[in-house]
Write the structure tokens for this entry.
Amino acid sequence: MKKLFFALALAAVCLVSCKKEPESNLTLSGLDPANFVAEVDGAETGLYTLTNSNGMEVCITNFGGRIVSVMVPDRDSIMHDVVLGFDNIQDYMTIPSDFGATIGRYANRIANGRFTLDKQTYELPTNNNGHTLHGGPEGWQYKVFSVEDVSQNSLQLKYVSKDGEMGFPGEVTAYVFFTVTDRNSIIIDYMARTMAPTVINMTNHSYFNLSGDPSQPITDHLLYLNADQTTPVDEWLIPTGKIVKVADTPFDFRTPKPIGQDIDADNEQIRFGRGFDHNWILNTEGSLKKVAATLVCPKTGIELRVFTSEPGIQVYTGNFLDGTVAGKDSTAYQFRTAVCLETQHYPDSPNKPQFPSTELRPGTKFESSTVYRFGIF
């Protein structure tokens, strides 16, 4: 009897002590995919994790086609999350933001929420000082994209924008392809078709902080821009239509320099943007083989190189972050704690015939590619 009791007791101890702890479902960046499961207007949202053979991890939600986190190594091989965002779907749904979003139908600003196409004038809802910004108050950053395909290192999303959505003409079917390569690149390919003449301008709105600490400003980051010219703006950040050279101005980043070096210069354009929030005209001629921009964090040694088929890049230095929004790990996002590198056609192009056209017509296809390549400086 004693032997039987001992055997049962030993078995019980083994069951308790040998029981495996449940494996964590958290991503490398600490996100819980369960916190991204929701239903919005009858469509399901989720979190999708892409990786490469080097251990790089990119997490994306189909709500707004948003990049939620990007884990890359620093010079000491320590992994850092280098983009701002939220750690749950509810915050993305309820807190107005563009963190990591796929922007459409028209990235950046359209003056007075109005443009004319084929002699017909279209009125758009305004959401930025009387102008339309990033597709309006209900742009694509707040829409659920359908997941068309997903693998270990790629994700294909689709969104159908109805005719008249946010005032834009034509039903547009848009695709966004995210690919993480073994060169530690995030390749973003865009494609769209329309049922009627319209305008389109798509971009990704990731907020980068290569220190991996979003409580710290990015003013020490070194920025290089392959651009000789910019499109100056008025006090509402609408392009005037002029094109000016960057030489001998705070906007000259043709030689890498700290973002903070001239960010508070006594310059009217700087005052309008409260820092940098402007479009640079790239010298790259749409070539994905030519570097459009380079960003380096001296503290971590993490380098980001940008390649794009787009003619311009909007550099926004987080001038309107003010600590009122808390993101991942409850971090309050303060003034200038991130920089956006938004590859694009120029703002307000539908109203500026001298700018490269953003018109899209039936039977043609909108295509655009951008590469964010991470490395060590």
